[in-house]
Amino acid sequence: MNKTVGRVDRVVRIVVAASLTFLAATPAINGGVAYGFLAVAAYLVITAITGHCLIYRMIGIESDVHGGEYHSGPTEAD
């Protein structure tokens, strides 16, 4: 099964998850909103670790690069 989450996307997910966790721990955000932030943060961390995002798969997005470099035009072998 191909991974759908690329390296840069993983780093962004970890940073956003840390930010949401910090906000949930502050007294300004409490109750259901804080639990919602923690749930989203947990999902982001899990998808960053595994490299598989169910939402990306459902809508057909892949931020992971497969294969080598992209070349347009003739190659040296041509």
TrEMBL record:
TM region positions: 12-29, 35-56
Keyword Transmembrane helix: yes
Keyword list, A-Z: Membrane, Transmembrane, Transmembrane helix
Domain Inner membrane protein YgaP-like transmembrane: 1-62
UniProt entry tagged with the keyword Membrane: yes
Highest taxon listed in the record's lineage: Bacteria
Name of one Pfam family that matches: YgaP-like_TM
Protein name, per record: DUF2892 domain-containing protein
Originating organism: Sphingomonas cremea
